[in-house]
Amino acid sequence: MQTKWLRTLSKDKVELHGLLFEPDVRSDTIVLHFHGKEGNFITNRFVYSMSERFTAEGIAFLTVNQRCHDYMSESLVQTPAGFEFKRYGFALDVFEDCLKDIEPFVDLAISHGYRRIYLQGHSLPHRCIYYHIQTHDDRITGLINICCSDLLFEFNAYVENYEDNLKLAKALVESGQGDRIMPILMWAGAYASAKTFWSYGNPEGNAQIFSFSDPKSTYDTLHQVKIPSLYVEPETDFSFGIDPHEALQICAEHTTGAPTETLHIPNTSHSFINAESELCDGIVKWIKKQ
Question: What are 196-207's pLDDT values in tens digits?
Answer without folding.
Answer: 999 999 999 999
